[in-house]
Amino acid sequence: MDFETLSADLRGLQERALKEIAAAADPDALEQLQIQYLGKKGDLTAVLRGIGALPAEDRPRVGAIANEVSEAVKGALASRGTELRAIVQAQRLLAEKVDVTLPGRSIARGTLHPIPETIAAIAEVFGQFGFVIYEGPEVENDLTNFQMLNIAPDHPARDLWDTLYVDIPGHLLRTHTSPGQIRVMQSTKPPIRALLPGRCFRYEAVDASHGFEFFQVEGLMVDEGTSMADLQGLLDEFAHALFGPRKTRFRPGYYPFTEPSVAFDVECVVCGGVGCPACSKTGWMTILGAGMVHPVVLQYGGIDPERYQGFAFGMGVERISNLRHSVPDLRYYLENDLRFLEQFR
Amino acid sequence: MRVPLNWLREYVDVQLSPEELAERLTLLGMEVQAIEHWGADWRSVVVGELLTVEKHPFADRLHLTSVNIGSGEPLHIVCGANNIAPGQRVPVALPGAVLPGDRRIERTEKMGIASEGMLCSGDELHITSDAEGILILPAATPLGQQLSDLYGDVVLDVDVKPNRGDALCLLGLAREVAAATGAALRWPEIIVKETGDPVSDHLRVDVRVPELCSRFVGRWIGGVKIGPSPDAIQMRLRAAGMRPVSNVVDASNYVMLELGKPTHAFNGAAVTDGTIIVRMAERGERLETLDHVERELMPDTLIIADSKGPIGIAGVMGGAASEIGDDTTAIAVESAIFDPVSIRRTGHRYALRSEASLRFEKGQEFRLARIGADRVAQLTQAWAGGTIARGRVDTASVEPEPARLAFRPARVSKLLGGAIPTADQRDLLRRVGIETELAPAGTRIQVAVEPKPLVVDPGSEEVLVAVMPTWRRDLAIEADVTEEVARIRGYEMTPAHLPDTLMPAYRHSPLRVRDAVREIMAGAGISEVVTHALVSPADEAALAWPDDESGPPPDGASVTDGASIGQPITVTNPLSVQHSVLRRHLIGSLLNVLALNERQGRESVAIFEIGQGYGRVGDAPREWNRLAFLLAGSAAQPGWNQAARAYDIDDAKGLVELLCRLLRLPAPVYTADETGLPLHPGRALTVVAQTERETLSGRVAELHPDTIARWDVRAGSVVVAELAIKGLAGGNLPNVRVQPTPRFPEVDRDLAVIVENARPAAHIEASIRGHAGELLRRVTLFDVYRGAPLAASEKSLAYRLVFGARDRTLTEVEIDGAMAQVRSGVEVDLGAHIRT
After folding, report:
1. Integer Cα distance of B80 and B90 in angstroms
2. Which of A96, A138, A219, B149 is most buried by a 10 A CB count?
3. How far apart are CA B559 and CA B673, in angstroms?
4. How far is CA B759 from the centre of its chain?
5. Among A200, A180, A177, A197, residue whose Cα is nearest residue A188
6. What are the DSSP calls for B40-79, one per residue?
7. Topology (CATH level 3) of domain B194-394
8. Would you list the domain boundaries of chain B?
9. Residues of chain B neighbouring A232 (CB-CB closer than 8 A)
C-alpha cells in the first residue's frame, strides 16, 4: 500500500459516495449511505485502516485527504438530506390536502332574546347621561301603582290601564313601570336620574299589537330646574342613538302623573316621514310618552315641588324593538319560536 | 270620537285639508288616529231617476223598474221595496258595485227577469237605519252623480284624552280648531218655541240625593209624532258612528254628539204622576233596561224613578218601560249633572257603559244641563213636531262664576325650560278662551290639589290670575296653565338641550350579574327565551317542588336552607285560566317553549330564561329571580364533521360548573334528590356552591316521563335546571383574586378506587380530599369502569391527583406518603379497595 494508491482509493470513495448520495431517493437510503461511508464500520474507516502501512511522513497527507473526503461526504449528505426532507414534506403536504370549501365544524352559540337586549340598548344610551338602573316589584299595591301617581280609585283615566288584580288585598299586577318613580324618589334624594325596566301586565286581549304581559322602561330625572327642554334634548339623543338622525317632535298627551304631558314622535323609520301604512300615513311614529312629574307625585315621593322639578318618560320595549328590527307582531316575543329568536344570532 | 267634517263645519270654518287639520289637532293634543273617507265604500253607486215601476209578472213582492242614470239606456232593475214610485231619485248600485260589508252587486236574474243592478236602502249603504224602503233622495239631486261625491264625507277619529271630557263633542273640537286656526266659533242657534202649558203642569222633579245629582233640568214636549229623523240627520249620526233610532231618540243623541251633553227622553205617559224622583235604588228593586235585560238593582245605584219604581239607571241607561215607542206622544226630557264617580262605579258594577256614561264619568259643565235640555226640546220639535211646555224644571238654576286660577309666568317658563314673555303667555291663553288679569296682592298659588294639595305664597314673583272657561274643568293647578301655554304655543317652540345639572352618585346596575349569566349561557350554546309570568294553575302545580313550602327563599340564597317561597299568587280577574296564576318556577314555561318548537319540527332545543318567580306568604307578596334552563335533543349539531350526541344530565351539570367558575364560585356540590315527580327519581339532584358572599343553589334533573308526557313533548328525555344565584336580583361580580403561578413542578399520580355501585362519586372525592393533605392541588375523575374483572356489584373510579408545593420540588417520599394516606383513608372511609 502506498500513498498514491491510498489517496486514489479515498478519491474513488468520495466520487462513489457523492454519486450515490445524489441518487438517494429518500431519507432512509441517505441514512444507509451515511452508515456505509462514514459509520464506524464504514468504507472510509476501512480505507483508512491501510494508513498504518504507510511511511510516517505520508500519514498526515493521507489524513488531510481523508478529512477532505469525510467533509465532502458529510456536506453532500446534509444537503441531500435537506433536499429530501423538503421533497418528503412537500409530498406529505400534498397528501394532506383537504377540500377547503367544505363548511367548518359548527360552534354552538345561543341567541340573546330581543327584549333584554333592547332594554340593554336603551340603558346604554341613558347610562351615558348618568341614568342608573332601579327595579320595582311586579306585584304592586294599588297605592303606588295608581293613587300616588295621582290616579284616584274612580279616576276616569283608570280606563287607560285595564288592570289584573291578585288575591292579595290592595295588590295588583303593575300596569306600568311608573310606580317605580315613587319608589325611587322615596329611596333616594335629588339629583335623580333613574331608569326602571321591567315586566308589566294589563287586562288586554292578545293581538299583533297588544298583550297582557309586556315590558316597559321608565325614566325619571329630578333636580332643581330640570325642564321640558332637558327632556326634549335627552330624548333627541336617544332617538338619534337608536334610530339614526331623524326628525323628532313633542305633541301634547295626557297622563295623570305628568303635567304637562307629551308624546314623543320620531320620523317614521319605515318611510322616512313621507307617510306609509306603518305610520298611518302621518310620517310619524310615537315611541314613548313623557311629561313633567306632577306635583302630587313629587310630594308622594317626598320631594318639595316648589324646590324641585323633573320629568318622567315611559316606553314600550317591544315597540322600540319592533321599530329597530322590523318585527311585525308583538306575539313573537313571548312565543319564543326559535326560528324567530335565532335571527338575532 | 268620530268627527264628520261636514258636521264640524257647522261650528267653525275649516280651510285646511283633512290631513292638515288632523295634524293641527294632533299637535294640540287631540290626536287624530285615523282619517276615514266616509262613503268611500259606495263604489259605483250613482243617483238614478225611476222612470217606470211595474209589478213583477211572477212574484207579487217584486217590482220591475226602469231607471235613468243620466246617460245611456235606462237600466232594468228588479226591486223588492214598496216605497218606490216613478219620478223619485234613488241610489242605484251598478253591476260591479261593492257595498259596505263587502257586498258585491252583479247583473243577476230574479224570478226569470234580468236585473242590471240594485236600488239601495239607507241601511244597505249604512247611511240610515231604514232597511225596508229604498232611500229616496231629494228631487234636485243631480242624475248620474256618484253618491259618495254627494254624501261622502271625511271623518276624523279623534282620541280625546280622559281629562278633556269637554272635547268629546263636535262643539268642543270646533273650539280646539278655532284655537288652532284663529277661525271664529259658531254656536248653534238655540231657540225654544215654548207654546204649551207651564211645564209644572206635566213634570215635577224630586232629587233626593243632591250630592250625586247636582242639577236636574227637565222639559216637557207634548203631541210629538214618532218617526224617522230627516235623512240628512241620520247620515250625520251614522257618519259619527251612532245608529239612528227615531226622531226623538236621535235628537237626544245628536245633542250628546254636538254639545257633549247626554240627555234622556222618557215616554211622558210612562212617568207616573209626571213626577221624576232621583234616588238610590232600594234592595230588591228590579229594572228592565233599554237593552232588554232585567237587572236586579244594587242599593248603591243612583236611579231615576217615579212613584211606582225605577225607570232608569241614572246616567247609564234608561228603562224599557219608559222607552220611546211608535205610539209615544209626550216626552219628558232629562238633562242632569250626575256625580262622575257614582256613574263610573255603576257602569262598572253592571258592566254597562254607554256613550252617555262615558261623558258623565268625565264630569260635565254645569250650565250644559240647561243648554242641553233646550237644544233637545228644539230639535225634537223640529223633527217630531209637538208643543214644548213653557219653562224648565231646574233643581239648581244658579250657574257658578268661572273658576279663577293664579299662576306665576316665571314658573311656566322654568318648567318648560325657556323664557316665554308674560305678554306672550297671556296671548296664548286667550286663544283657548282663558282670560288673564293681574292678581290682587296676597294671592296664593295652587301648586297641587287633592289627593295631596299644596298652596304656596308666591313671595315677590309676578302673579297672574287666569279666568277659566266654564267648560274647562281640567284646569286646576299652576302646571295645568303651563301645559295650556306649551300646547297652544307648540312644542316645536320649546328649546331642546342636554341637562347641565348635577349627576347622581354611582350605583351598580342590578342587571350586571344577570347580563353576565346571559352571556355565559349564550356562549355555551343555549338560547335565551322570555316567557309569560302568568301560567295555568295546573301547570304551576305540576311543577311544584316538594320543598316549596319550606324551600328556597326569594332572595336567591340556598334552596335547602329553610325559608319558604310560599303559595302561588292568583289573578282574580284573569283573561283565561291558562294565564291565571303567577309562576313560582320557570320550568313549565320552558316546557311550553319546547313543545311549541317541537311542533315547528325542531328536534333539539337548548334554552334558558332568567325570570321572576312569585309567591305569597300570608298577604306578603315575594318575588325573586331565577335562572332556568332546559336541554332536549342533540347536544352537538350533527354535521358532516361531527356526530350527534343527545343531551344528558352531565351537560346540565357542566353548565352549572361553568357558571360557578365564571361567577367565581367554588365547585358545586351535588346531592341526589330522589323525591320523584315532577323529576326523574334516579336522575335528579340538588346543587349548592357557596362562599361567604356568593351562592348558587338549585336543582338539576331529568324530568319524570309523566311530566314530559303532560306537556305533550316528543323528546325522550328532557334535562332541566332551576338555579337561585345571589346577585341575579342585583349585585356585582367579585374581583378575581390571583394566586402566584407555581414556581416548582407539580407531580401527578393516578388512583383507581373500587367501590360498590351505589356509592356516590362525591363521597370518594371527599374522602380523597380529606386524606391527601395540604400538598394536594387538584383531583380529577377521568374514568368510571364496570365489568370484568370487577364483581357485578362494583365499579372502579379512576382519579388523577396533582400534588405540588409553593416553596419546593416535592420528593418521591412526600408524594408516596400522601398517596399511602389516601389509599388507606379511602379503604377505611368507604370500604373501598384500590386497584393496582
Report:
1. 14
2. A219
3. 12
4. 57
5. A180
6. TT-EEEEEEEEEEEEE-SS-TT-EEEEEE-SSSSPEEEEE
7. Phenylalanyl-tRNA Synthetase; Chain B, domain 3 (3.50.40)
8. 2-39+154-181, 43-151, 194-394, 409-493, 512-725, 747-835
9. 417, 491, 494-496
DSSP assigned state of A148: G
- The nearest CA of chain A is from the CA of B530 a distance in Å of 6
- Please give the Cα distance from A182 to A145 (Å, whole number): 9
For B318-377, the DSSP string reads EBSTT---TT---EEEEEEEE-HHHHHHHHHHTT---HHHHHHHT---TTHHHHHHHHHH
Interval A17-37: pLDDT, tens: 999 999 998 889 999 999 998
**Architecture of domain B512-725 in this structure:** 2-Layer Sandwich (3.30)
Question: Domain B747-835, CATH 3.30.950.10 — does that match?
Answer: no
Residue B411 CA to residue B447 CA, distance in Å, equals 11
Amino acid at B108: T
Distance from CA of B515 to the nearest CA of A (A): 9
The answer to whether A111 faces chain B, any CB pair under 8 Å, is: yes
Output A245-250 pairs: Cβ under 8 A, ≥24 positions apart.
Answer: A246/A272, A246/A273, A247/A273, A249/A284, A249/B27, A249/B491, A249/B492, A250/A290, A250/B491, A250/B492, A250/B494
Query: Does the beta-carbon distance from A138 to B533 stay under 8 Å?
Result: yes
Calpha distance A127→B158 (Å, rounded): 37
B501 touches chain A (CB under 8 A): yes
Q: Domain map of chain A by residue range?
A: 3-95, 114-344
Q: Do domains B2-39+154-181 and B409-493 have the same CATH topology?
A: yes
Residue B764 has pLDDT above 80, yes or no: yes
Tell me what pLDDT residue B548 has: 67
Q: Which of A224, A232, A306 is nearest to B408 (CA)?
A: A306
Q: What is the pLDDT of residue B558?
A: 40
User: Using CA atoms, how far apart are residues B140 and B152, in angstroms rounded to an integer?
Assistant: 17
Q: Considering only CB atoms, which chain A residues are within 8 Å of B487?
A: 252, 260
Rounded-to-integer distance, Cα A98 and Cα A77, Å: 33
CATH class of the structural domain B2-39+154-181:
alpha beta
**pLDDT tens readout for residues B610-627:** 999 999 888 989 898 899
The arrangement of secondary structure in A114-344, i.e. its CATH architecture, is: 2-Layer Sandwich (3.30)
Residue A281: CB partners within 8 Å, gap ≥ 6? A275, B19, B35
Here the ipTM equals: 0.88
Residues B99-143 have pLDDT tens digits of: 888 888 888 887 888 899 999 988 888 877 778 889 888 888 888
Out of B414, B534, B572, name the one closest to residue A167 (CB). Answer: B572
Nearest chain B residue to A150, by CA: B451
Superfamily of domain B43-151: Nucleic acid-binding proteins (2.40.50.140)
Residues of chain B contacting A169 with CB distance shorter than 8 Å: 619
Q: What is the CATH number of domain B409-493?
A: 3.30.56.10
